[in-house]
Structures are given as structure tokens and as C-alpha cells.
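Hello, quick one for you while I still have it in my head. No rush at all, and the record is pasted right below.
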Amino acid sequence: MDPSDHEEASVLYSPGREPKIVSNINADARKVIKSWCNETIFETYGTVFTEGNLETFWSAVVSIFLIGGVIGSLGGAWVADKLGRKRSFLLCGFLLFVGGVCFQFCQTLNSVELLMIGRIVVGLAAGLTTSTVPMYLTELAPLGLRGALGVFCSMGVTGGVVVGQVISLEEVFGTEDHWQFALSFYVILVVMFFVPYPWLPESPKYLFVIRRRHDEAVNELKRVAGKKVRDEYVREQIEAMRRECTPENDEETCGETDSRVEKTKERSIWSVLKDPTLLLPLVLVCALQGGQQLSGINAVFFYSVSIFESVGLSSTDAKFANLGAGCLNLFVAFFSPILMAKFNRRFLALTSCAMCALFLFCLTFIVYFIDDVEWFSYASIVAILLYILFYQIGLGPIPYFIGSELFEVGPRPAAMALGSLASWACNFVVAMLFTTLQNAWGAFVFLPFTCTCVALTLLLRLYLPETRGKHISQIVPLVAKGFSSKPLVP
């Protein structure tokens, strides 16, 4: 979500204002859509909304997307195991397409209900995407490129926010006649990205470990690796996958494909929650995904327009400056694959969390005294940009794929689903509570986010093992003893 609904700089300090963190579209389009909802409800039901009623209804429009995300996350484990990784990807695209069609025709049909349906369907798709797509990417990736491919989901989210900001500008589609195009424009991108779907491979690990289709797994492995792949490489990968089979199945059985081995290695969410050997990695995944939302990224974007206005920019210029901050976020994201290939996960995650905590604290101090020190307005912009920079090198991309590096194939879908659930739940908490806290605390609203980043830094410092360049069989024993684990001991 991109918080950018502001009117003037005084919103930072005036408790009478009630700006909302609502979506990745800008304030112009949101005002137009709210107005349309009000008029449509009156025309359809004869109900006249007060300002408070309209705000309550708009909060429902906003939150139903997040509720869809929570439901989609919970279903991610089941979908990934039952449909497979590739077809899960297709289901995400189908739901996104259906949601886009609802958006496109809700104004034509004068139906607020269609807008709500579109929101929850797209929320379902988003929840499924965050729990299944990073897993699919990392399972396809060779060991050396696992992190580089894993960050592509994060890059897609960041790019989508920027596209949403641009498309919903008043100069583009953020008008009374065209706002439905601002909501449904993404369908064009969905269709483009799904053109190569027939040529995409299924995850060899899913086929081998979960479905026990040995021959299919070998064929897909060769297709992923290329025609010139050496037999030695294929044998190494098969042996690595064999080690991820359940302990009760010996190596020979794990490689067979007859009817005697139809039993799969699926793990339910409940079985993962009860397994003490999975406690620590599950805490790490949920803490990183939830902490990503509680780290203040939405709050920082929320305040950025007001801060840009406080240095003398007009409302229009501040809006474009906020778009520039989003573009900086995307620009840094383009370097994520290189960072993941060249630097250790621990170093990037710890640096990101620690520096985000530092700049959030600085922003709290600066915003509190912004009226007393003339140059603090410019300092606040520097703090925002540095926060965005350090957020995107670790807290932005790593939570999306770290579950695929801490869990074996069997419990991986459930772990990714629970991590995604933590992310969406914390997203919902921030959306519901941020305005209340901002009205009550003013500039100090950044302190809970600062504390989150500090707590994450300590947790990762003590318990996050280094996963870069290591096979899962090397990582799992490091975190198998819960909080008694010593993941940094060689």
C-alpha cells in the first residue's frame, strides 16, 4: 500500500485530520472513487451517507482487500501442494484477471458491490501470490542464483506500487470518467506476463519430493538447466532432492514412481505449527514478513507528501516528489538480485533493520522539532530517502523468499503461507490503527516502527543462519532445536 492521501503539511500535527493509509493509488483517484461510491449508494438504495458513514464504508472497501489477502495466504499451502507450483501461479493470474474485469465494469453497471467483489478477489490473488510465487522461483533456481531469483516477487510488488501511482494520477486516469481504468490497468501486465506460461516448467523439487514423479522431475530439471546440462549435475540435484524425502522413506522408495509410493510428503499448517523442530525457522519467517509491514514503510510514504509540502513544494509538486520516492524504491530494488548474489543474507538483513531503526528514530526527532529548526524540513527528506534505500536492500526483498531457504520442500508451503499470513495481518493492523496513533501521538507514531526494527535486529543477530550458497540439508540442522539452536556455530 502507498500512503499518500494528504492536503497540506499541517496534517502532521493536527489531530482533527483523519488521513488514511489505503492503497497504492494517489489521493486524486481515491477522492473521485469515494465520491462515486457515495452517489451510487444514494441512487441504488436511496441512502444518504454522512461524512462519518462514508469514511466507515470506505474503510470497509479498503480492509476487504486485506481480508482477502489473509484468506489467500491461508490457502496458499493447500493450493501449492494440490495444484502444484506452476498451476498455483496460473490461479493467481486468473484471480487477478477476474478482479480487473470487476473493476472495469463496476462504473458502467453502477455497482458498488462489483467494486467490493473485485477488491476481495484481488486480495485473494495477492495472498496466494506472496505465499506461492517466491517459493516457485527459489525451487527453480540453481543454488547460486536462489536469492537473485527470489527477490523478483519483491521487485514486482515495488514496481506495481509505482505503476499504480502513475496510472492513478489526475493527468492519466485519476478522473471521474476514467478511474476504472486506473484500477484495472494492471490486467494488461497480467496478460503480458502470462503469455509464456505454457513454456514454464513445474518445480522439479515439487514433482520429486511431494508427488514422487521421478521421471517427470528429471525431465523438468533438464529443461530448467538447458540442453547442454551434464549428467553429473542432474545426478547431484537428484541426490539433493532425495535427501529432502521423509525419514520414513528410504532412498530407493523415494525415487520410485509406482503405485506403492502414492503417499506424498505434504505437511498441513497444523502439523508444521506442532513440530518443535520447525519452531525457530517459523518464528524467523513470520517475524520477517510481519516485521516488514511493521517497519514503517507505509507510514514513511504516508508522511512524505506532507513533508515535501513543508519545504515549500506545492501540493502537485509534493505529489510528484512522493512518486519520485516510489521510483527510488523501485530503482534500488533493481539492484536486489546483484546484492543477493554478492552479499550474505545475514549482513543485508541486519544492516537493513538496524539502519531503518536509526533513520526512523531520526525522523521522529526531526518531525517533532520541524517547526523549531529551519533546515529540519530538508533533513526530514534526507531521512526518508535513506530509510527507503536501506529498507529495500534487506527488509524489502528478503522476507519474501527466506522461508524457501529455511524449510525443506515438505513443510515449505505451510511455512510460506504462515509467513504471508503474518504479513497481511500486520498490514491490516497498520491500516486500522495508524490514523488513531497518528492523531494521538503525532510525530511519535514512528516509535513503534523503530522498536519493531530494533527487535528484528536482535532476533536476526541471534538466530538467523546464513543461507546463501548452502543447501537446505545444511541449514535445517542449524535451527532444529528451537531457541536453544546456535545457528552461528560452525
Notes: Confidence is low (pLDDT under 50) at residues 1-23, 247-253, 256-264. Residues 244 and 408 are 6 Å apart (CA to CA). The two ends are 40 Å apart (CA to CA).
